[in-house]
Protein backbone atom coordinates (compact mmCIF):
# COMPACT_ATOMS: atom_id res chain seq x y z
CA UNK A 1 0.00 0.00 0.00
CA UNK A 2 1.32 3.39 -0.96
CA UNK A 3 0.45 6.60 0.91
CA UNK A 4 1.23 10.03 -0.45
CA UNK A 5 1.73 12.98 1.92
CA UNK A 6 1.40 16.58 0.86
CA UNK A 7 4.35 18.76 1.84
CA UNK A 8 3.18 21.63 4.08
CA UNK A 9 5.32 24.28 5.74
CA UNK A 10 4.08 24.70 9.32
CA UNK A 11 6.84 26.73 10.90
CA UNK A 12 10.18 28.47 10.59
CA UNK A 13 13.59 27.51 11.96
CA UNK A 14 16.30 30.10 12.49
CA UNK A 15 19.85 28.83 13.10
CA UNK A 16 22.56 31.20 14.33
CA UNK A 17 26.27 30.58 14.52
CA UNK A 18 28.45 32.64 16.88
CA UNK A 19 32.24 32.46 17.09
CA UNK A 20 33.41 32.60 20.71
CA UNK A 21 36.86 32.69 22.26
CA UNK A 22 39.43 30.07 21.19
CA UNK A 23 37.64 29.78 17.86
CA UNK A 24 34.72 27.78 19.26
CA UNK A 25 31.60 28.00 17.06
CA UNK A 26 28.36 28.07 19.05
CA UNK A 27 25.09 27.26 17.30
CA UNK A 28 21.58 28.06 18.52
CA UNK A 29 18.30 27.04 16.96
CA UNK A 30 15.03 28.94 17.31
CA UNK A 31 11.67 27.41 16.43
CA UNK A 32 8.70 29.52 15.30
CA UNK A 33 5.12 28.38 15.47
CA UNK A 34 4.11 29.76 12.09
CA UNK A 35 5.62 30.76 8.77
CA UNK A 36 7.34 34.12 8.87
CA UNK A 37 8.13 35.93 5.65
CA UNK A 38 8.95 39.54 6.60
CA UNK A 39 12.39 40.66 7.67
CA UNK A 40 10.98 42.33 10.80
CA UNK A 41 9.48 39.12 12.14
CA UNK A 42 12.76 37.28 11.77
CA UNK A 43 14.70 40.12 13.37
CA UNK A 44 12.52 39.83 16.47
CA UNK A 45 14.22 36.53 17.22
CA UNK A 46 17.63 38.16 17.01
CA UNK A 47 16.97 39.59 20.47
CA UNK A 48 17.94 36.16 21.78
CA UNK A 49 21.55 36.81 20.71
CA UNK A 50 22.55 38.38 24.04
CA UNK A 51 20.69 35.95 26.30
CA UNK A 52 22.88 33.69 28.38
CA UNK A 53 21.80 30.22 29.26
CA UNK A 54 19.37 29.95 26.33
CA UNK A 55 18.87 26.35 25.37
CA UNK A 56 20.00 25.24 21.96
CA UNK A 57 16.36 24.65 21.06
CA UNK A 58 14.46 27.81 22.03
CA UNK A 59 10.84 28.69 21.35
CA UNK A 60 9.71 32.15 20.29
CA UNK A 61 6.16 33.16 19.32
CA UNK A 62 5.56 36.66 17.95
CA UNK A 63 1.80 36.28 18.11
CA UNK A 64 2.08 36.67 21.88
CA UNK A 65 4.89 39.22 21.89
CA UNK A 66 4.03 41.86 24.49
CA UNK A 67 6.42 44.46 23.03
CA UNK A 68 4.00 45.61 20.35
CA UNK A 69 3.23 48.92 21.94
CA UNK A 70 2.63 52.31 20.37
CA UNK A 71 6.06 53.93 20.55
CA UNK A 72 7.85 56.32 18.20
CA UNK A 73 11.58 57.10 18.39
CA UNK A 74 13.09 60.40 17.19
CA UNK A 75 16.87 60.70 17.00
CA UNK A 76 19.40 63.08 15.46
CA UNK A 77 22.19 60.58 14.82
CA UNK A 78 24.77 63.13 13.56
CA UNK A 79 25.74 60.86 10.68
CA UNK A 80 24.70 57.33 9.75
CA UNK A 81 28.20 56.35 8.60
CA UNK A 82 29.55 56.18 12.14
CA UNK A 83 30.70 52.69 13.19
CA UNK A 84 28.32 52.50 16.14
CA UNK A 85 25.25 53.81 14.27
CA UNK A 86 23.68 50.44 13.43
CA UNK A 87 24.33 48.98 16.88
CA UNK A 88 22.82 52.07 18.53
CA UNK A 89 19.67 51.82 16.41
CA UNK A 90 19.35 48.11 17.15
CA UNK A 91 19.72 48.76 20.88
CA UNK A 92 17.15 51.58 20.85
CA UNK A 93 14.70 49.38 18.97
CA UNK A 94 15.27 46.49 21.35
CA UNK A 95 14.79 48.65 24.43
CA UNK A 96 11.73 50.63 23.27
CA UNK A 97 10.07 48.54 20.49
CA UNK A 98 8.96 51.43 18.24
CA UNK A 99 6.53 51.04 15.36
CA UNK A 100 8.03 54.17 13.77
CA UNK A 101 11.45 55.79 13.94
CA UNK A 102 12.51 59.24 12.71
CA UNK A 103 16.27 59.58 12.18
CA UNK A 104 17.57 63.04 11.24
CA UNK A 105 20.90 64.45 10.05
CA UNK A 106 21.89 61.14 8.49
CA UNK A 107 24.24 62.90 6.02
CA UNK A 108 23.57 60.12 3.51
CA UNK A 109 21.42 59.59 0.44
CA UNK A 110 21.03 57.33 -2.55
CA UNK A 111 22.36 53.77 -2.71
CA UNK A 112 24.51 54.10 0.41
CA UNK A 113 21.50 55.12 2.48
CA UNK A 114 19.39 52.27 1.11
CA UNK A 115 22.13 49.76 1.88
CA UNK A 116 22.28 50.80 5.56
CA UNK A 117 18.48 50.96 5.88
CA UNK A 118 18.25 47.34 4.70
CA UNK A 119 20.32 46.32 7.73
CA UNK A 120 18.00 48.06 10.21
CA UNK A 121 15.02 46.33 11.89
CA UNK A 122 12.41 48.13 9.74
CA UNK A 123 10.98 47.02 6.41
CA UNK A 124 9.38 50.34 5.41
CA UNK A 125 11.32 53.53 4.72
CA UNK A 126 11.02 57.05 3.29
CA UNK A 127 14.17 59.10 2.71
CA UNK A 128 14.62 62.87 2.31
CA UNK A 129 17.70 64.03 0.40
CA UNK A 130 20.59 65.59 2.25
CA UNK A 131 21.59 69.24 1.99
CA UNK A 132 24.99 68.69 0.44
CA UNK A 133 26.83 66.59 3.01
CA UNK A 134 24.51 67.75 5.80
CA UNK A 135 20.93 67.04 6.80
CA UNK A 136 18.93 64.05 5.69
CA UNK A 137 15.77 62.48 7.15
CA UNK A 138 14.80 58.81 7.37
CA UNK A 139 11.26 57.80 8.30
CA UNK A 140 11.31 54.08 9.13
CA UNK A 141 8.40 51.84 10.09
CA UNK A 142 7.23 48.25 10.58
CA UNK A 143 4.82 47.28 7.82
CA UNK A 144 3.31 44.48 9.92
CA UNK A 145 2.10 47.01 12.50
CA UNK A 146 1.53 50.26 10.66
CA UNK A 147 0.65 51.42 7.15
CA UNK A 148 2.39 54.61 5.96
CA UNK A 149 1.44 56.62 2.87
CA UNK A 150 4.15 59.19 2.09
CA UNK A 151 2.62 62.42 0.80
CA UNK A 152 5.60 64.70 0.20
CA UNK A 153 9.29 65.09 1.01
CA UNK A 154 11.69 68.00 0.92
CA UNK A 155 15.18 68.53 2.28
CA UNK A 156 13.70 69.55 5.65
CA UNK A 157 10.50 67.50 5.99
CA UNK A 158 8.68 64.26 5.28
CA UNK A 159 4.87 64.22 5.48
CA UNK A 160 2.95 60.94 5.62
CA UNK A 161 -0.42 59.47 6.62
CA UNK A 162 -0.20 56.92 9.45
CA UNK A 163 -2.69 54.08 9.78
CA UNK A 164 -2.07 51.70 12.67
CA UNK A 165 -3.32 48.25 11.72
CA UNK A 166 -4.85 47.59 15.12
CA UNK A 167 -6.87 50.82 14.93
CA UNK A 168 -9.34 52.44 12.54
CA UNK A 169 -8.09 56.01 12.88
CA UNK A 170 -5.43 57.70 10.79
CA UNK A 171 -3.33 60.80 11.31
CA UNK A 172 -0.65 62.95 9.69
CA UNK A 173 3.00 62.83 10.74
CA UNK A 174 5.67 65.35 9.76
CA UNK A 175 9.28 64.35 10.32
CA UNK A 176 11.38 67.51 10.59
CA UNK A 177 15.03 68.44 10.29
CA UNK A 178 15.21 72.25 10.24
CA UNK A 179 18.16 73.78 8.40
CA UNK A 180 20.73 75.44 10.69
CA UNK A 181 20.44 78.62 8.57
CA UNK A 182 17.55 80.88 9.59
CA UNK A 183 16.63 81.85 6.01
CA UNK A 184 16.23 78.18 5.08
CA UNK A 185 14.21 77.51 8.24
CA UNK A 186 11.77 80.24 7.24
CA UNK A 187 11.04 78.24 4.08
CA UNK A 188 10.20 75.26 6.29
CA UNK A 189 7.90 77.34 8.50
CA UNK A 190 6.06 78.61 5.38
CA UNK A 191 5.67 75.07 4.04
CA UNK A 192 4.18 73.89 7.32
CA UNK A 193 1.74 76.81 7.37
CA UNK A 194 0.65 76.03 3.80
CA UNK A 195 0.08 72.39 4.74
CA UNK A 196 -2.03 73.39 7.75
CA UNK A 197 -4.75 74.98 5.58
CA UNK A 198 -4.97 71.93 3.30
CA UNK A 199 -6.30 69.38 5.80
CA UNK A 200 -8.14 68.93 9.11
CA UNK A 201 -6.50 65.66 10.20
CA UNK A 202 -4.93 64.90 13.57
CA UNK A 203 -1.37 66.09 13.04
CA UNK A 204 1.95 65.66 14.84
CA UNK A 205 5.32 67.25 14.05
CA UNK A 206 8.50 65.74 15.47
CA UNK A 207 12.22 66.01 14.94
CA UNK A 208 15.08 68.50 15.21
CA UNK A 209 13.76 72.07 14.85
CA UNK A 210 17.15 73.72 15.45
CA UNK A 211 15.45 76.45 17.47
CA UNK A 212 14.63 77.24 21.10
CA UNK A 213 11.46 78.97 22.25
CA UNK A 214 12.68 80.80 25.37
CA UNK A 215 15.72 81.63 27.47
CA UNK A 216 14.92 78.68 29.74
CA UNK A 217 15.59 76.25 26.88
CA UNK A 218 19.22 77.34 26.44
CA UNK A 219 22.29 77.31 28.65
CA UNK A 220 25.42 79.26 27.70
CA UNK A 221 26.36 80.85 24.39
CA UNK A 222 24.78 83.92 22.81
CA UNK A 223 21.41 85.28 23.97
CA UNK A 224 18.31 83.86 22.31
CA UNK A 225 17.32 85.74 19.14
CA UNK A 226 13.73 86.89 19.61
CA UNK A 227 13.21 87.33 15.86
CA UNK A 228 13.87 83.65 15.30
CA UNK A 229 11.67 82.70 18.26
CA UNK A 230 8.78 84.76 16.88
CA UNK A 231 9.09 83.02 13.51
CA UNK A 232 8.66 79.49 14.86
CA UNK A 233 6.00 80.51 17.38
CA UNK A 234 3.99 82.23 14.65
CA UNK A 235 4.17 79.06 12.56
CA UNK A 236 2.99 76.85 15.40
CA UNK A 237 0.20 79.27 16.33
CA UNK A 238 -1.09 79.30 12.74
CA UNK A 239 -1.07 75.49 12.75
CA UNK A 240 -2.73 75.37 16.22
CA UNK A 241 0.14 73.27 17.53
CA UNK A 242 0.88 72.58 21.18
CA UNK A 243 4.16 71.39 22.64
CA UNK A 244 3.76 67.87 24.08
CA UNK A 245 6.29 68.65 26.82
CA UNK A 246 8.79 66.12 28.09
CA UNK A 247 10.22 64.24 31.02
CA UNK A 248 13.90 63.53 31.57
CA UNK A 249 16.89 65.79 30.85
CA UNK A 250 16.00 69.41 30.15
CA UNK A 251 18.27 69.87 27.10
CA UNK A 252 18.45 67.64 24.03
CA UNK A 253 21.68 68.96 22.49
CA UNK A 254 25.12 69.87 23.83
CA UNK A 255 28.38 71.00 22.27
CA UNK A 256 30.27 68.72 24.71
CA UNK A 257 32.67 71.48 25.80
CA UNK A 258 34.07 72.29 29.22
CA UNK A 259 31.95 74.26 31.68
CA UNK A 260 33.18 77.68 30.59
CA UNK A 261 32.34 77.06 26.92
CA UNK A 262 29.44 74.64 27.45
CA UNK A 263 26.26 75.27 25.45
CA UNK A 264 23.10 73.21 25.84
CA UNK A 265 19.72 73.65 24.12
CA UNK A 266 16.38 71.97 23.69
CA UNK A 267 16.29 71.64 19.90
CA UNK A 268 14.37 68.37 19.49
CA UNK A 269 10.68 68.28 20.36
CA UNK A 270 7.22 67.00 19.43
CA UNK A 271 4.22 69.17 18.53
CA UNK A 272 0.60 68.15 17.98
CA UNK A 273 -2.70 69.83 17.17
CA UNK A 274 -5.78 69.46 19.41
CA UNK A 275 -7.27 66.75 17.19
CA UNK A 276 -4.17 64.58 17.54
CA UNK A 277 -4.03 65.23 21.28
CA UNK A 278 -7.66 64.18 21.57
CA UNK A 279 -6.81 60.97 19.72
CA UNK A 280 -3.87 60.18 22.03
CA UNK A 281 -4.78 61.87 25.30
CA UNK A 282 -2.12 60.06 27.34
CA UNK A 283 0.75 60.58 24.88
CA UNK A 284 4.00 61.72 26.47
CA UNK A 285 7.59 62.43 25.44
CA UNK A 286 10.72 61.25 27.25
CA UNK A 287 14.22 62.60 26.64
CA UNK A 288 16.46 59.54 26.71
CA UNK A 289 20.14 59.53 27.59
CA UNK A 290 22.53 60.68 24.85
CA UNK A 291 24.24 57.82 23.07
CA UNK A 292 26.64 57.98 20.09
CA UNK A 293 25.51 61.54 19.25
CA UNK A 294 25.34 65.04 20.71
CA UNK A 295 21.52 64.84 20.62
CA UNK A 296 19.23 62.95 23.00
CA UNK A 297 16.86 60.42 21.41
CA UNK A 298 13.19 61.21 22.05
CA UNK A 299 10.67 58.50 22.92
CA UNK A 300 7.07 59.35 22.09
CA UNK A 301 4.64 56.96 23.78
CA UNK A 302 1.22 57.22 22.20
CA UNK A 303 -0.67 54.97 24.62
CA UNK A 304 1.36 54.49 27.80
CA UNK A 305 -0.24 51.87 30.08
CA UNK A 306 -3.47 52.23 28.10
CA UNK A 307 -4.78 48.72 28.69
CA UNK A 308 -3.99 48.86 32.39
CA UNK A 309 -5.58 52.29 32.77
CA UNK A 310 -8.75 51.30 30.91
CA UNK A 311 -9.12 48.18 33.02
CA UNK A 312 -8.63 50.19 36.23
CA UNK A 313 -11.08 52.85 35.09
CA UNK A 314 -13.72 50.26 34.28
CA UNK A 315 -13.30 48.46 37.61
CA UNK A 316 -13.37 51.65 39.71
CA UNK A 317 -15.79 53.94 37.87
CA UNK A 318 -17.72 51.67 35.53
CA UNK A 319 -19.37 53.31 32.54
CA UNK A 320 -19.67 56.96 33.55
CA UNK A 321 -21.54 57.99 30.40
CA UNK A 322 -24.29 55.43 30.96
CA UNK A 323 -24.59 56.42 34.62
CA UNK A 324 -24.80 60.09 33.71
CA UNK A 325 -27.55 59.48 31.13
CA UNK A 326 -29.56 57.42 33.61
CA UNK A 327 -29.29 60.07 36.33
CA UNK A 328 -30.17 62.93 33.96
CA UNK A 329 -33.16 61.00 32.56
CA UNK A 330 -34.58 60.43 36.05
CA UNK A 331 -33.99 64.03 37.08
CA UNK A 332 -35.71 65.38 33.98
CA UNK A 333 -38.67 63.08 34.64
CA UNK A 334 -39.30 64.78 37.96
CA UNK A 335 -36.87 63.01 40.23
CA UNK A 336 -39.45 60.73 41.82
CA UNK A 337 -37.86 57.53 40.64
CA UNK A 338 -34.39 58.78 41.42
CA UNK A 339 -35.38 59.81 44.91
CA UNK A 340 -37.00 56.48 45.73
CA UNK A 341 -34.29 54.39 44.13
CA UNK A 342 -31.50 56.47 45.63
CA UNK A 343 -33.10 56.22 49.04
CA UNK A 344 -33.21 52.45 48.78
CA UNK A 345 -29.74 52.24 47.27
CA UNK A 346 -28.15 54.57 49.79
CA UNK A 347 -29.81 53.26 52.93
CA UNK A 348 -26.54 51.57 53.81
CA UNK A 349 -24.95 55.03 53.97
CA UNK A 350 -27.07 56.05 56.94
CA UNK A 351 -29.78 53.51 57.53
CA UNK A 352 -31.07 52.46 60.92
CA UNK A 353 -29.06 49.31 60.87
CA UNK A 354 -25.94 51.45 61.07
CA UNK A 355 -27.24 53.48 64.00
CA UNK A 356 -26.82 50.50 66.32
CA UNK A 357 -23.10 50.06 65.59
CA UNK A 358 -21.19 49.36 68.82
CA UNK A 359 -19.03 52.18 70.17
CA UNK A 360 -15.64 50.65 70.88
CA UNK A 361 -12.91 53.10 71.91
CA UNK A 362 -9.60 52.41 73.54
CA UNK A 363 -8.26 54.55 76.36
CA UNK A 364 -5.91 56.64 74.23
CA UNK A 365 -8.67 57.54 71.76
CA UNK A 366 -10.95 58.69 74.56
CA UNK A 367 -8.22 60.99 75.88
CA UNK A 368 -7.65 62.55 72.46
CA UNK A 369 -11.32 63.21 71.79
CA UNK A 370 -12.27 66.93 71.76
CA UNK A 371 -15.74 67.58 73.19
CA UNK A 372 -15.48 71.27 74.08
CA UNK A 373 -13.11 74.27 73.92
CA UNK A 374 -12.73 77.24 76.27
CA UNK A 375 -12.64 80.67 74.61
CA UNK A 376 -10.76 83.80 75.74
CA UNK A 377 -13.59 84.84 78.07
CA UNK A 378 -13.43 81.53 79.92
CA UNK A 379 -16.67 80.26 78.42
CA UNK A 380 -16.83 76.63 77.34
CA UNK A 381 -17.94 75.97 73.78
CA UNK A 382 -19.80 72.66 73.64
CA UNK A 383 -21.19 72.66 70.09
CA UNK A 384 -18.01 71.52 68.34
CA UNK A 385 -19.43 68.02 67.76
CA UNK A 386 -23.15 68.84 67.83
CA UNK A 387 -25.30 67.45 65.06
CA UNK A 388 -25.51 70.18 62.36
CA UNK A 389 -28.81 71.68 61.33
CA UNK A 390 -30.21 71.52 57.81
CA UNK A 391 -29.28 75.15 57.28
CA UNK A 392 -25.70 74.58 58.41
CA UNK A 393 -25.29 71.66 56.00
CA UNK A 394 -26.69 73.68 53.08
CA UNK A 395 -24.51 76.65 54.01
CA UNK A 396 -21.39 74.46 53.98
CA UNK A 397 -22.31 73.01 50.58
CA UNK A 398 -23.14 76.41 49.10
CA UNK A 399 -19.80 77.89 50.22
CA UNK A 400 -17.80 75.37 48.17
CA UNK A 401 -16.76 75.88 44.54
CA UNK A 402 -19.01 73.81 42.28
CA UNK A 403 -16.57 72.40 39.75
CA UNK A 404 -13.57 71.27 41.74
CA UNK A 405 -12.23 67.82 40.84
CA UNK A 406 -14.68 65.10 41.99
CA UNK A 407 -13.84 62.19 44.22
CA UNK A 408 -14.07 58.47 43.58
CA UNK A 409 -17.85 58.65 43.00
CA UNK A 410 -17.37 61.05 40.05
CA UNK A 411 -19.91 63.60 41.38
CA UNK A 412 -18.61 67.12 41.98
CA UNK A 413 -20.10 69.74 44.29
CA UNK A 414 -22.06 71.39 41.45
CA UNK A 415 -24.19 68.27 41.04
CA UNK A 416 -25.35 68.38 44.68
CA UNK A 417 -25.94 72.14 44.52
CA UNK A 418 -27.98 71.83 41.32
CA UNK A 419 -30.12 68.88 42.44
CA UNK A 420 -30.28 69.59 46.18
CA UNK A 421 -34.07 69.19 46.24
CA UNK A 422 -33.65 65.62 45.02
CA UNK A 423 -30.56 64.42 46.90
CA UNK A 424 -30.62 66.83 49.84
CA UNK A 425 -32.44 64.56 52.29
CA UNK A 426 -30.03 61.70 51.74
CA UNK A 427 -27.00 63.97 52.13
CA UNK A 428 -28.34 65.56 55.34
CA UNK A 429 -29.13 62.13 56.75
CA UNK A 430 -25.59 60.94 56.03
CA UNK A 431 -23.88 64.04 57.48
CA UNK A 432 -25.96 63.96 60.68
CA UNK A 433 -25.26 60.26 61.16
CA UNK A 434 -21.49 60.94 61.00
CA UNK A 435 -21.74 63.56 63.77
CA UNK A 436 -23.95 61.29 65.87
CA UNK A 437 -21.68 58.26 65.58
CA UNK A 438 -18.44 60.26 65.75
CA UNK A 439 -17.12 58.07 62.95
CA UNK A 440 -16.67 58.50 59.19
CA UNK A 441 -17.55 55.29 57.33
CA UNK A 442 -14.89 53.68 55.19
CA UNK A 443 -16.78 54.27 51.94
CA UNK A 444 -16.80 58.04 52.64
CA UNK A 445 -13.13 58.06 53.52
CA UNK A 446 -11.94 56.67 50.19
CA UNK A 447 -9.74 59.22 48.43
CA UNK A 448 -7.98 59.41 45.09
CA UNK A 449 -4.47 60.89 45.05
CA UNK A 450 -3.58 62.93 41.94
CA UNK A 451 -0.05 64.15 41.17
CA UNK A 452 0.14 67.66 39.68
CA UNK A 453 3.41 68.58 37.88
CA UNK A 454 5.21 71.54 39.44
CA UNK A 455 7.73 72.11 36.65
CA UNK A 456 8.82 71.10 33.16
CA UNK A 457 11.05 68.04 32.95
CA UNK A 458 9.72 65.76 35.67
CA UNK A 459 12.26 63.36 37.10
CA UNK A 460 11.64 62.76 40.83
CA UNK A 461 8.55 62.53 43.03
CA UNK A 462 9.41 65.93 44.54
CA UNK A 463 8.59 67.50 41.16
CA UNK A 464 4.90 66.67 41.71
CA UNK A 465 2.35 68.22 44.05
CA UNK A 466 -0.07 65.61 45.43
CA UNK A 467 -3.72 66.55 45.95
CA UNK A 468 -6.50 64.49 47.50
CA UNK A 469 -9.77 64.06 45.60
CA UNK A 470 -12.42 63.50 48.28
CA UNK A 471 -16.12 62.91 47.70
CA UNK A 472 -18.58 65.73 48.30
CA UNK A 473 -20.19 64.37 51.49
CA UNK A 474 -16.75 64.14 53.10
CA UNK A 475 -16.06 67.74 52.03
CA UNK A 476 -19.33 68.93 53.60
CA UNK A 477 -18.43 67.31 56.92
CA UNK A 478 -14.96 68.87 56.84
CA UNK A 479 -16.41 72.27 55.93
CA UNK A 480 -18.81 72.23 58.86
CA UNK A 481 -15.99 71.44 61.29
CA UNK A 482 -13.83 74.20 59.77
CA UNK A 483 -16.63 76.78 60.05
CA UNK A 484 -17.12 75.89 63.71
CA UNK A 485 -13.44 76.04 64.61
CA UNK A 486 -12.56 79.11 62.53
CA UNK A 487 -13.92 81.74 64.98
CA UNK A 488 -11.81 80.19 67.76
CA UNK A 489 -8.49 80.15 65.88
CA UNK A 490 -7.33 83.66 66.91
CA UNK A 491 -7.47 82.59 70.56
CA UNK A 492 -5.87 79.19 69.92
CA UNK A 493 -2.90 80.32 67.80
CA UNK A 494 -0.07 82.46 69.11
CA UNK A 495 0.20 86.05 67.81
CA UNK A 496 3.71 85.14 66.65
CA UNK A 497 2.36 82.48 64.31
CA UNK A 498 2.07 83.87 60.79
CA UNK A 499 0.15 81.03 59.14
CA UNK A 500 -3.37 79.57 59.38
CA UNK A 501 -5.03 82.91 60.19
CA UNK A 502 -6.77 85.30 57.85
CA UNK A 503 -4.99 88.64 57.63
CA UNK A 504 -1.60 87.38 58.85
CA UNK A 505 1.41 87.17 56.53
CA UNK A 506 4.89 85.75 56.87
CA UNK A 507 6.33 89.25 56.28
CA UNK A 508 4.84 90.31 59.65
CA UNK A 509 7.45 88.17 61.42
CA UNK A 510 10.21 89.93 59.49
CA UNK A 511 8.96 93.30 60.68
CA UNK A 512 8.75 92.07 64.27
CA UNK A 513 12.27 90.66 64.10
Account of the 3D structure:
With 513 residues, this protein is α+β, with helices and mostly antiparallel strands. It has three domains: 12-64, no CATH class; 71-304, Endonuclease/exonuclease/phosphatase (Deoxyribonuclease I, Chain A), CATH 3.60.10.10; 335-512, no CATH class. Helix content is 33%, strand content 21%. The protein has helices at residues 39-45, 85-96, 110-117, 182-196, 226-238, 274-279, 306-317, 320-332, 336-345, 347-350, 352-355, 363-368, 390-398, 413-418, 420-437, 472-485, 489-492, 506-512; strands spanning 12-19, 25-32, 57-60, 71-76, 100-104, 124-128, 137-141, 146-153, 157-164, 170-177, 203-208, 218-219, 242-243, 253-254, 264-265, 268-272, 284-287, 298-301, 373-374, 380-381, 448-453, 464-469. The strands form six sheets. A six-stranded mixed β-sheet has the order 6-7-5-4-18-17, covered by helices on one side. A six-stranded mixed β-sheet has the order 8-9-10-11-16-13. Strand 10, helix 4 (182-196) and strand 11 form a beta-alpha-beta unit. Helix 13 (390-398) crosses helix 16. The protein is elongated, with a radius of gyration of 32 Å.
Strand order of the largest sheet: 6-7-5-4-18-17
The CATH architecture term of the largest domain is: 4-Layer Sandwich
Going by CATH, what is the homologous superfamily of the largest domain? Answer: Endonuclease/exonuclease/phosphatase
> Regions with pLDDT < 50 over 5+ consecutive residues?
1-5, 46-68, 335-367
Distance between the termini: 112 Å
Structural class by helix and strand composition: alpha+beta
